[in-house]
């Protein structure tokens, strides 16, 4: 049998982004305190890896590397309880995971319904027996969902019909969309811990947390400011595609999912000022990195931007905005692992992950963190 990767350069072969992860290394629950998570420090200039740090030490570590300070850019999107459970007209149970961010719903009055509101959306539908197109399911007295059309990979076009405030409806009836690899249902604690402390209420649209930001506390942010680091924010509504593995043997053939990004002028101006002063721009998480590089790609420079990005960052990509990255440890064969390898170098990332595994770091969304400087 022929090897489909035989003629693929190593950095573009999917097999180069595979590593063995013992199940017990997956963090099923968050650390007792946000900033008590462990922190691996990958210093590209010094070619060093430190594994004996805590996230609470981040301000000291960054100021040691960048004594003049810098700019941190974080994703302020909010995870909303996007999983809802209802009943079909037959009485069967139905589960919907809404993928369209609530702020992006184009709401309009439903004709002849006496005050109900309608909007088309994208989502995943799960039922015991296949749901028919145009079938309507009830999700309580104030929300109905119709399946309009089926698409690829289980995605469906839906029509939402509701009365009242749709965000309140989801907040009251919905469940947090925890990553499937946690292999558990959400609980009350996830409402707070699967959310950054700086998530904005009017940015409720992510179906996964920008997990690098989960470690930040007001104390850590204050210490960063005291050491000369400024803070700016972008919005990227994290989609379900963040959990989708790359399926192509040659990773260059993978098609990236689109996500909606908003970079305000105030953030663009902060980036321009940092670059002009020779200060580093450090992305808090891969979603922030994708926002900034997607903005640059769309605008041809640093500017305010609002729109979708399908940017796919692989080895060989020349980063235009991001100089450093705070991130968690990512799934094998994921576009996120490929992205951090593009920033730090595949060999360095493999060494960092090997060190994290040897030192029993916790992996994935509720796991420990890494800073790449």
Map the helices and strands.
Elements: E1 38-43, E2 48-54, H1 58-65, E3 70-75, E4 78-79, E5 83-88, E6 93-98, E7 108-109, E8 117-127, E9 136-138, E10 143-150, E11 155-162, H2 166-173, H3 188-193, E12 204-206, H4 218-226, E13 229-236, E14 259-263, H5 265-276, E15 281-284, H6 286-299, E16 305-309, E17 324-328, H7 335-344, H8 346-358, E18 369-372
Parallel strand pairs: 1-18, 3-13, 3-15, 4-12, 15-17
Antiparallel strand pairs: 1-2, 5-6, 5-9, 6-8, 7-8, 8-11, 9-10, 10-11, 13-14, 14-16, 17-18
Helix pairs in contact: 1-4, 7-8
Tags for this entry?
Thrombin, subunit H; QueA-like; alpha+beta; six-stranded antiparallel barrel; 8 helices; 373 residues; nine-stranded mixed β-sheet
So how many helices? Answer: 8
Element-level helix/strand string: EEHEEEEEEEEEHHEHEEHEHEEHHE
Count of the separate structural domains: 2
**Structural class of the helices, strands and pairings?**
alpha+beta
CATH architecture of the largest domain: 3-Layer(aba) Sandwich
Globally, the shape reads globular
**Global mean pLDDT:** 95
Proportion of helical residues: 10-25%
Provide the CATH topology of the largest domain. QueA-like
Q: The biggest beta sheet, please?
A: 9 strands, mixed
How far is it from the N-terminal to the C-terminal residue, by CA?
43 Å
Please identify which CATH superfamily of the largest domain we are dealing with: QueA-like
Description:
The chain has 373 residues and is of the alpha+beta class. The protein has two domains: 10-79 and 190-372, QueA-like (3-Layer(aba) Sandwich), CATH 3.40.1780.10; 83-174, Thrombin, subunit H, CATH 2.40.10. The chain has eight helices and 18 strands. α1 runs parallel beside α4 (218-226) and α7 (335-344) packs across α8 (346-358). The relative contact order is 0.21. The mean pLDDT is 95.
């Amino acid at each position: 049998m022929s090897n489909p990767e035989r003629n693929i350069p190593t950095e573009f072969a999917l097999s180069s982004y595979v590593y063995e992860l013992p199940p017990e290394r997956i963090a099923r629950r968050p650390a007792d305190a946000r900033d008590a998570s462990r922190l691996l420090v990958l210093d590209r200039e010094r070619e060093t890896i430190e594994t004996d740090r805590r996230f609470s030490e981040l301000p000291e570590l960054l100021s040691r590397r960048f004594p003049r300070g810098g700019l941190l850019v974080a994703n302020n999107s909010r995870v909303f309880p996007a999983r809802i459970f209802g009943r079909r007209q037959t009485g069967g149970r139905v589960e919907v995971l809404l993928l369209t961010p609530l702020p992006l719903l184009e709401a309009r009055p439903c004709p002849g319904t006496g005050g109900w509101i309608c909007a088309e959306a994208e989502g995943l539908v799960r039922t015991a027996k296949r749901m028919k197109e145009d079938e309507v399911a009830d999700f309580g007295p104030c929300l109905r969902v119709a399946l309009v059309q089926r698409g690829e990979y289980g995605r469906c076009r839906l029509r939402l019909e509701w009365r009242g405030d749709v965000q309140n409806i989801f907040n009251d009836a919905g469940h947090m969309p925890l990553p499937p690899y946690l292999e558990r249902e959400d609980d009350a604690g996830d409402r707070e811990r699967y959310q950054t402390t700086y998530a904005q209420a009017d940015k409720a649209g992510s179906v996964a947390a920008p997990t690098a930001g989960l470690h930040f506390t007001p104390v850590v942010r204050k210490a960063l400011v005291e050491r000369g680091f400024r803070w700016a924010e972008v919005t990227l509504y994290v989609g379900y595609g963040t959990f989708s593995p790359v399926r192509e043997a040659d990773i260059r053939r993978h098609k990236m999912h689109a996500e909606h990004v908003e970079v305000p002028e105030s953030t663009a101006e902060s980036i321009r000022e940092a670059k002009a002063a020779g200060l580093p721009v450090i992305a808090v998480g891969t979603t922030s990195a994708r926002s900034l590089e997607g903005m640059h790609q769309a605008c041809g420079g640093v500017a305010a931007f609002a729109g979708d990005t399908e940017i796919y960052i692989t080895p060989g990509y020349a980063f235009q905005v991001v100089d450093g990255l705070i991130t968690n440890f990512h799934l094998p064969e994921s576009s996120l692992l490929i992205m951090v390898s593009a920033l730090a170098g595949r060999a360095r990332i493999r060494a960092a992950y090997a060190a994290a595994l040897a030192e029993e770091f916790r992996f994935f969304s509720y796991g420990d963190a890494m800073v790449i400087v």
